[in-house]
Amino acid sequence: MVPQGGPSQRLNELLDSIRAEFDTETQRNVEYEGRITSHINEIEMIRGKVYALEQQHIQVKTKYEDEIARLQRELEARGGPAQSSQHHGPSQPPPPSIGHGPSNLFGGIMAGSAAQGGPGLAPPPQEPPQPQGMPPHLPQGPPGLNPAPGPPQHFGGYQPGPSVNGRSSGYPQPTASPGGRPRGPPPRGPPGPATPQQNTAAPYPGSPQVPRPTPPPNQHLASLPPANQVPLAQSNTLADLDIEQLPDNFKKEGQDWFAVFNPRTRRVLDVDLIHNLPHQSVVCCVRFSLDGRYVATGCNRSAQIYDVETGNLVAHLQDGSLPEDGDLYIRSVCFSPDGMYLATGAEDKVIRVWDIQSRTIKHQFTGHEQDIYSLDFARNGRIIASGSGDRSVRLWDLPSNKQVLHLSIEDGVTTVAISPDNRYVAAGSLDKSVRVWEVATGQLVVRLEGEVGHKDSVYSVAFAPAGDRLVSGSLDKTIKMWDLSPPSRMLQGGVPGGQCVRTFEGHKDFVLSVALTPHGDWVLSGSKDRGVQFWDPNTGVAQLMLQGHKNSVISVAPSPTGGIFATGSGDMRARIWR
After folding, report:
1. pLDDT band, residue 125 (cuts 50/70/90)
2. pTM, whole model, 2 decimals?
3. In the prediction, which pLDDT does 228 show?
4. How far apart are the first and last CA of the chain?
5. What ranges make up the beta strands (E) of 78-192?
6. N or C: more exposed end of the chain, with fewer CB within 10 A?
7. Listed residue (466, 402, 457) closest to 434, CA to CA
8. Average predicted confidence (pLDDT) for the chain
């Protein structure tokens, strides 16, 4: 007889045993997953702490690098050894491009080695990475304001040059300002384009500061062959002439400036310094009012307006709503044709139109995504053109207070100009091209480039008074004149066209600014070689070279009434010349 419930009871016991083991393993898995989750949380916490330490280390490292750079600048300003990494003149690499990477172009040019930094003219070399940490903003005060007294220092860090024939070559070397106050430390450059610059104005190759073998006493430059028998480039390289050996009628010297006149062409110009206008930062731009009575300058955080006749400061324009600290370089200024307004373009991507009489902002245009490098007012007084590192040209209508045209290109825009008849807007770019559009339609009319075009970024464009020609200045050290007429040469549809009728060669370094005198008689240019040159537009021959600044000449502007021009420089000075 089989016992009741035997196999069934045994099966139930086995099932209970399996269930108990399953429950035990499940509990262990839950505990194991809990421990894994705890480990993961610990790892994430450790990763967060490591990241925070890394960021703290980067901040400390940046702080020490900035402090080291500041001490190096102080050492140089006191006459100590210069940094071995500094480049001089043409051997310096071109500045970083605008449009790719950081949003500043002129800084590299401004501070020394454009190799450090990012788009426009990139934060500079011998200065700590800029946009931050620039000198204090310019306080309102008389145009003759000088830096506070301190130990005597060489102007702009410049040291006296070697002597030639017993005289110190190059510029005179005063250690104090005309008012007798010692000069301050070398200027610091703004970030971005508008300008390649060296903090210490080192002699460039061929500069009058670099001694050359003394020619035999019977060699007279005045007897050199005429310009038409000399290669054009050679006849234009006025910086290679030794001022000590030039006859008196081919040179002129002031207290801290000199001019060299081309001995291979007939001298028809003269030059004199009228006013020296010290600033407390790099002067990025200069521009005259249409009646020639006033000149405006743009520097860190403010724009100034001076009376051309007296040199007195008549207006100091600064946006009081902005924070007091930090830098904000004014890259471009331009007067309205009626002289009532001044437009300023700055690193904060804002265009401000000031009512000069009330010193208040009448219009404010926003939309650009990077620094504004150039502005121009149309002669009709309605339209302002702007060019920016955001790779665009924009047109703004004052009566409606709106943007009316947005033109995009492949690279950063460094310079814009509106034709005298208000029909066209031209722009130069880091892509080596000059473009011209119709204002009314936004149609690209002509693109000036190719084999006859510039070999490096274009930093300045200007229309001839008649509007039929355009001049452009480039980091390839040349100036080009383009023929925009007859209309058959203005090809439609953006097809490259236009004709380069003349190339002006003779500058030793980047050409940063170009202009034409009111009647088109002369082409005027400013360069990183610290020189200003006047050129005959009909022949391409240089008439004179003026050395009156101790750093890059960032901006040149002729007076619309003729006979006077202004210059702005990285040496923290604007000057008015006759």
Report:
1. very low
2. 0.68
3. 55
4. 137
5. 163-164, 167-168
6. N
7. 457
8. 77
